[in-house]
Write a structure and sequence with these properties.
This protein is α/β, with parallel strands linked by helices. The protein has 2 domains: about 5-140, Protein-Tyrosine Phosphatase, Chain A; about 170-385. Helix content is about 30%, strand content about 20%. The chain is built from 12 helices and 19 strands. It has helices spanning about 5-15, 40-50, 60-70, 80-90, 100-110, 130-140, 185-190, 230-235, 255-265, 335-340, 340-355, 375, and strands at about 50-55, 75-80, 95, 120, 170-175, 195-200, 215-220, 245, 250-255, 270-275, 275-280, 285, 295-300, 305-310, 315, 325, 330-335, 370, 385. The strands form 4 sheets. It has an 8-stranded mixed β-sheet. A 5-stranded mixed β-sheet has the order 9-17-11-12-18. Helix 5 (about 100-110) packs parallel to helix 6. The longest helix is centred in the middle third of the chain and has 15 residues, at about 130-140. The model has no long low-confidence stretch (mean pLDDT about 85).
């Protein structure tokens, strides 16, 4: 039996399981697997070459599988309940996170697609709610298919000979506050492949001397007025590109994603793309409980009807067609590096005001973390996936 994730994912799971906020979360009801319950699982896994067993259950079925699988057939046990992993996972190859989206993304990030891995529920799981949550992982895994975008200028890309139109254009977009730290770094890091950048400043007027940018910038101004969606919609209304890539002032594209953006805009199968986002702190990158991959839909086709909704934690509505998933390249979220504790407290207070409540947003002093270098080891070559438009990327 071979292990799928090796040292890197073992470090991830150990960090999640050792995090003290995970204690006391409880497990789920289990029962015996039943005679012959694993026979079909063994046959399917040996055809695909790998078994993704969803849930540790009592641990008995997982250990029996480990002993029955033929040499060369891999096994990974995926667990959404850390207490269950602590109690029954000793000696087994376990991947643990409380987020179904995070588990599915990590499985796909190492290439265990549906053609290469059998993804099944542990027959020992007797709790209906636990089964429902594990089935969410199963559905996300089944929804994935590789997408091979054609580079701009290739015979099949828009704007090439024989294609129906000119190359797709890109608008960069952001809503910013004049006091945002490192605005120079934000503008300098904008992808030079864009036709324009659109910025709506949270102020009565735009700065008279804004930072330099590698692309032309359209500077607009409007007070935020506790409504992030309305501010985003003002930003969107000013964009003229075929595609829109929007960022926050404390986010930066990593170099691999900057290089891939033109290829993503050139393909015509996906209408939007979600990127993983690393929350970088002085102690490392936050993980577990959906803190990573923290998928963000940030690149989308500027179709009619696309708009932002909700005053805080705004979300896009009106996207038509599948949403692609980027693996191995994404965003770096630098809020904890660029902003002081006082700045973060003011930001969270603003979020509370927009939500019309108090105490909803706060900075927790303890998170499980791993060094940022860990993530560069997971997928040295980024690839793409196809997710159905009905999928919403939720942490838990």
């Amino acid at each position: 039996m071979k292990l799928a994730f090796g040292e890197a994912f073992a470090a991830y799971t150990q960090a999640v399981l050792s995090f003290r906020l995970g204690h006391g979360g409880g497990g789920y009801a289990t029962g015996p697997a039943g005679h012959g319950a694993l026979d079909a699982i063994v046959r399917q896994a040996e055809r695909t070459g790998h078994c993704l067993l969803l849930g540790l259950g009592r641990g008995e079925a997982a250990r029996e599988l480990a002993g029955r699988l033929a040499p060369g057939t891999g096994l990974t046990v995926c667990e959404l309940y850390p207490e269950q992993a602590r109690e029954h996972g000793l000696g087994l190859p376990v991947l643990a996170d409380a987020s179904p989206t995070a588990l599915a993304w990590m499985i796909l990030s190492v290439g265990l697609l549906r053609a290469k891995a059998t993804c099944v529920l542990n027959p020992e799981i007797a709790d209906p709610e636990a089964r429902r949550r594990f089935q969410a992982v199963q559905k996300l895994h089944a929804a994935f298919a590789l997408l091979d975008p054609q580079p701009p200028g290739s015979p099949d890309s828009p704007g090439s000979p024989g294609s129906p139109g000119p190359p797709a254009s890109l608008s960069l977009a952001a809503i910013l506050h004049p006091d945002e730290p490192d605005l120079e770094g934000f503008f300098a890091a904008l992808p030079p492949s864009a036709r324009e950048a659109v910025v709506v400043w949270d102020a009565p007027s735009a700065p008279s001397n804004p930072p330099a940018s590698p692309v032309p910038v359209k500077h607009l101004a409007h007070p935020l007025e506790r409504d992030f969606a309305a501010q985003r919609n003002r930003m969107l209304a000013a964009c003229r590109g075929d595609w829109v890539l929007y960022l926050d002032g404390d986010e930066r594209l990593d170099p691999a994603l900057t290089e891939l953006i033109p290829k993503l805009c050139a393909q015509d199968r996906c209408r939007a793309f979600a990127f993983p986002r690393l929350a970088v702190t002085p102690a490392g990158v936050k993980i577990g409980w959906g803190l990573w991959p923290d998928l963000q839909v940030r690149l989308f086709r500027r179709d009619a009807g696309v708009r932002f909704v909700r005053p805080v934690h705004e979300r896009l509505e009106g996207l038509s067609g599948p949403t692609g998933l980027m693996v191995g390249a994404g965003l770096r979220h630098l809020s904890d590096l660029l902003k002081s504790p006082e700045d973060l407290a003011r930001k969270h207070a603003l979020f509370d005001q927009a939500a019309g409540a108090t105490g909803l947003h706060r900075q927790n002093p303890e998170y499980p973390t791993l060094p940022e270098a860990y993530f560069s080891r997971l997928t040295p070559s980024p690839f793409l996936g196809m997710w159905p438009e009905t999928v919403h990327f939720q942490p838990l």
